[in-house]
Amino acid sequence: MLGVLGINHKTASLGIRDKFAIPADDIIPLSERFLQIKEIAGVVVLATCNRTEVYYSKDNCSAKECKDNILNELHSYLNVETDYSSNFYHHTNADAIRHLFRVTSGIDSMVIGENQIVNQMKKAYVFCTEANLTDAILMRLFQKSFECSKKVRTETSIQQGATSVGYVAIDMCEKIFENLKLQHILIVGTGETGQLALRDFKKRGVADISITNRTDEKTLEVAKNRNVNPILFRNFKDHLAQSDIILTATSAGEYLITKQDIEQIQEIRKNKKQLFIDLSVPRNIDIEIGNLDHTQLICVDDLQKILDDHKEMRENSVDNANIIIDELVEESITWLNSRSLRPVIKSITTNMQQLSDNELIEYRKNMDEKTIEQIEKYTGLLTQKYIRMLIKNLKEVTNNGNATASLDVINQLFNFEDKINE
């Protein structure tokens, strides 16, 4: 079955989420540690600025056992000494599938309906699949989640209004600066978040935009494609003084811009307002910068103030989206239950046939071939009909909302392989 353990913007502050941010290079080694946990068969790790989630498929381990083991590995691997277990949520079976579908569809995002999360989900899934970390259950359910996301986004109005965290941040820029078009923008980071912010700034008519990235080749490539100014990463601090808005969106695990960096340029700027937007987790901008005169710092959690403006408009869309999600969750649960029944069905078929063959052995001794052939044909038809009736009833029983308990009973009922010859 499916399980998910996670932490997000609803359950933990940015400071706590920082501690559980998983760098890209650590996803495979950490996932391999998860796979060492007894009965866990596959893993997909999602790490974004607003959430860290571990999706896993399991066989027979208890939900509490899986939760505790994964939490222990997370705390240990990331060197987090304080116990933050209370900030994590844990779902299994139908609730886990529903959570997966809600996340991929943008229903669970800070910006409801945002597009970025589905791309992040796809990247996480492909990355873990190519690293042989997933199994058939995760592959099927993640593919179903992408189908669900497409259906929600095309059949509801969930994407009206703000569609990314960067979009909301730029809304705040327009409220802070009287004329956004006249400001010089510096974007640090050319990943998806940085490029979405770049696109949205250009849509608002901003022309003076510079970008930088740790990889110079990537900086030059994006700058050429987007028609903006490239800055080599080693030189980007030389451009802080002339930048009115500085936005960071990288996976660096350290401050790229410190309080001292900004103190040194304040005299050059002559008390001109300067806005810092940190869309990175962990933070890229020293939090103390927000305490300096003539500066303002916005981080991911501050964006909630604007998101409330879009909430009412999307409420009806969320209700409609949940209807679609619930339908696809039910469909997925039916598939999972059917898949769980395969070993039982195989056992029933084999054992019933063996029983029939064993009972006929004695009769063969006193009957002619023609009679034996007729009896075998009759018993074969009867056995197959009985098996079909059993299988039909089994599928109905496991779809009654208590599949796990039903499967346990079914496995006990039909575990009579060693009793056939008694």
Please supply descriptive tags for the structure shown above.
alpha/beta; Beta Polymerase, domain 2; 10 strands; Rossmann fold; 3 domains
Give a verbal description of the structure.
- Residues 172-306 form the Quinate/shikimate 5-dehydrogenase/glutamyl-tRNA reductase domain.
- Residues 5-156 form the Glutamyl-tRNA reductase N-terminal domain.
- The chain is an alpha/beta fold.
- It has three domains: 2-161 and 315-333, Beta Polymerase, domain 2 (2-Layer Sandwich); 165-307, Rossmann fold (3-Layer(aba) Sandwich); 343-395 and 403-419.
- 53% of the residues lie in helices and 12% in strands.
- It has 14 helices and ten strands.
- The chain has helices at 14-19, 27-35, 63-77, 93-104, 116-130, 136-155, 165-176, 192-203, 216-226, 259-263, 266-269, 304-364, 369-398, 403-413; strands at residues 2-8, 40-47, 51-58, 89-92, 185-188, 209-212, 229-230, 245-248, 274-278, 295-299.
- The chain has a six-stranded parallel β-sheet, with helices on one face. The protein has a four-stranded antiparallel β-sheet with strand order 2-3-1-4, sandwiched between helices.
- α4 (93-104) packs across α6 (136-155), α6 crosses α12 and α12 packs parallel to α14 (403-413).
- The chain is elongated, with a radius of gyration of 29 Å.
- It starts with a strand and ends in a 9-residue tail after the last helix.
- The mean pLDDT is 87.
